[in-house]
Amino acid sequence: MPISFSHNFATHIMGSSYHILLFTIFIFLSISFLFDISFASRGKTLDDGWTPIKDPRDPKVVSVGNFAVTTHNSQTKSSLVFYSVVHGESKSDGESKSDGGTNYNLTIAAKDGDDTLRNYVTLVIDRPYQNSFVLVSFKGPI
Asked: CA 126 → CA 50, 63, 105, 134, distances in Å?
């Protein structure tokens, strides 16, 4: 036997139609928030096509980070020493999927001249079809 609530019962519990409206909005927002968390926790791509890097110690990701520091050093006459990839994200570079090009947006840790570990943000394009990386930007320390 289904349970039904009369308007009087709901009004008695909630106090007024204003409270019912607030309660309904609260439930709606709570459910929306839970769906946002569940989709984000599945490792899906972000709205702009970037996908979080699952393992920043992956040899490919580490080689991209090391390339960024080495190239930055040669371009700016710096002496940073690559330490690790802290976190990052990647996405297809928009060219033919058969080419396999990938953009890497990485936060990396590097030691500077006084041996202090600092974080930097870099954008690198991997073009395996040209057997090359391209350093687009290197910012920091952050």
From this structure: 15, 11, 11, 7
Count of alpha carbons within 13 angstroms of residue 87, beta-carbon side: 3
Residue-by-residue DSSP string for 25-62: HHHHHHHHHHHHHHHHTTTPPPTTS-EE-S-TT-HHHH
Q: Are 118 and 141 in contact (CB under 8 A)?
A: yes
Alpha-carbon distance values, 78 to 70, 100, 115 (Å): 9, 31, 13
DSSP structural state of residue 80: -
Task: Output the pLDDT for position 90.
Answer: 96
Spatial separation of the C-alpha atoms in residues 58 and 75, rounded to whole Å: 26
Is the distance from CB of 46 to CB of 33 less than 8 angstroms?
Answer: no
Residue with tokens 């899906």: 44
Higher-pLDDT residue of 127, 22: 127
Summarize pLDDT for 4-53 with one digit per residue, the tens. 555 555 555 556 776 665 566 656 555 555 454 444 444 455 568 899 99
